[in-house]
Amino acid sequence: MMGRILVIVIALVGLLTAVGVWYLQVFHYYDRVSPEGFEIQAENSTIRASATNIEAIDANSSPIRFRACFNTDLTPDIDAVPYEDATPLTAPFWFDCFDADAIGEALEAGTARAFLGTENIAYGADRIVAITDDGRGYVWHQLNNCGEVAYDGTQIGEDCPPREDQ
Fold first, then answer.
1. Which residue of 24, 64, 102, 139 has the fewest CB atoms within a 10 Å radius of its CB?
2. Which residues pair with 142 in a beta bridge?
3. Which Pfam family, an example, fits this chain (predicted)?
4. C-alpha angle 38/42/47, rounded to 5°?
């Protein structure tokens, strides 16, 4: 009888731990970002455009958790440096304006174009902006070469800037 109780207690602790970790990753660490002062900008460009219907989330637990969706009068053929290998990262299911799969498909199909918004917005992470043919815009942070090396534990090369936290 004592063994059954112990197994049930262990199973319940495991289940509560799993639910707690899931909740923390999907809900707790994310905060909605105020749209005030939100502007679209491209690195090495003078492009500035207005954005409406802005929805954005961020978390201080990781440099790549930022996501934003908006409407804009920009078109994908703007004069900005394209961002090669732009890969939108999935957002929590409750942030339904940001569909990483659909954005990725639009980038592959050529109905959207991604460009560098801000290089090294956080160490090793670039802010990527994608604009679609229908005037929707998306923003996310993506690890750059230095970030991929820094966060996998590999020695950072000389072509990467020094980290401020070291």
1. 24
2. 126
3. DUF6446
4. 80
Asked whether 114 and 107 are in contact (CB, 8 A), the reply is yes
Query: Which single residue is written with the structure tokens 């909605």?
Result: 32
> Residue 111 carries which side chain, given as an amino acid letter?
T
Q: Residue 147 belongs to what H/E stretch?
A: helix 145-151
Residue (of 144, 115, 143, 120) closest to 131 by Cα position: 115
- Per-residue pLDDT of 124-145, as tens digits, reads 889 899 999 888 999 999 988 7
Closest by CA position to 130, among listed 91, 90, 72:
72
- Cβ–Cβ < 8 Å for 138, 106: no
Burial environment of residue 46 by CB neighbours within 10 A (0 to 12, 13 to 18, 19 or more): exposed
The C-alpha atoms of residue 129 and residue 42 are separated, in whole angstroms, by 8
pTM of the complete model: 0.77
Ranges of each domain in the chain: 2-31, 33-151
